[in-house]
Amino acid sequence: MDMKKRITLELRSRNPAEIAELVVDNSRSADGEVEGLTDEFTELEFLSMVNVGLNSLAKLPSLPKLRKLELSDNNLSGSLETLSEKCPNLTYLNLSGNKIKELSNVEALQNLKSLQSLDLFNCEITSLEDYRESVFELLPQVTYLDGFDQEDNEAPDSEAEDEDEDGEDGAGPTGDYDEEDDEEEDEDGSEGGEVGLSFQEDDEDEEDYAEEEEEEEDQAGVQGQKRKRDVEDEGEEDDDDEDD
């Protein structure tokens, strides 16, 4: 799908001025230029054009509020001076997987005064000696290059930080209290299980004992009846002897 058609679909009949984020990854630019974007996208803050076959940014419209731009896996080697002219407020720029070979290719980014994070993964420039030191020196406004600062500290993930902060807020005293309650419940449950088991064993012992008593009583009754019959039989025999 060509880029212009993809942008039309992404709009979904909305006014371009209503769009804050636009993703047209893997669409196709017929002549290697930006197509379908106009100056009407005045509120656009995030734009992703990954793997769209760009050779140039010359036709990029003015996007004054754009802060994040994804341009990885294209064929860009120059024309980066357009970015400072059309997107002066960029804070994040991803140029990974492009044909950027020399420091002179990124020198035009010096005019992006708000640029904080720059990615050049899989570009030939990364193989240059003292690549990181040279880029940081050339672009002093950049804090993170390829995800790390000059001291090799990893760049924070703003979305993850927001989630962590939300989680911490939600796991305040109430969260700690619930955890303690769960532990107490577990302890009570384990003790209750042992008590229940002992009661069950006692009940079984009592049942066995009652059965034994019943058996003994039955046996005693049978023996008593037998003795009684034996006595009666002996009495009858004595009567017969007297008659004789």
Explain the overall architecture.
Helices cover 45% and strands 7% of the residues. It has 244 residues and is of the alpha/beta class. Strands 1-2-3-4-5-6 form a six-stranded parallel β-sheet, covered by helices on one side. Helix 4 links the parallel strand 5 (117-119) and strand 6 (144-145). The N and C termini lie far apart (132 Å).
Backbone CA Rg: 44 Å
- The shape, in one word, is globular
* Low-confidence runs of at least 5 consecutive residues: 159-185, 189-201, 240-244
SSE ordering = HEEEHEHEHEHH
Oligomer: single chain
List the helices and strands and how they pair.
Blueprint: H1 3-11, E1 21-23, E2 46-48, E3 68-70, H2 81-86, E4 92-94, H3 103-106, E5 117-119, H4 131-138, E6 144-145, H5 158-170, H6 173-243
Parallel strand pairs: 1-2, 2-3, 3-4, 4-5, 5-6
Give the tags:
single chain; 244 residues; alpha/beta; six-stranded parallel beta sheet; 6 strands; disordered C terminus
Short account of what is shown:
The chain has 244 residues and is α/β, with parallel strands linked by helices. It has helices at 3-11, 81-86, 103-106, 131-138, 158-170, 173-243; strands at 21-23, 46-48, 68-70, 92-94, 117-119, 144-145.
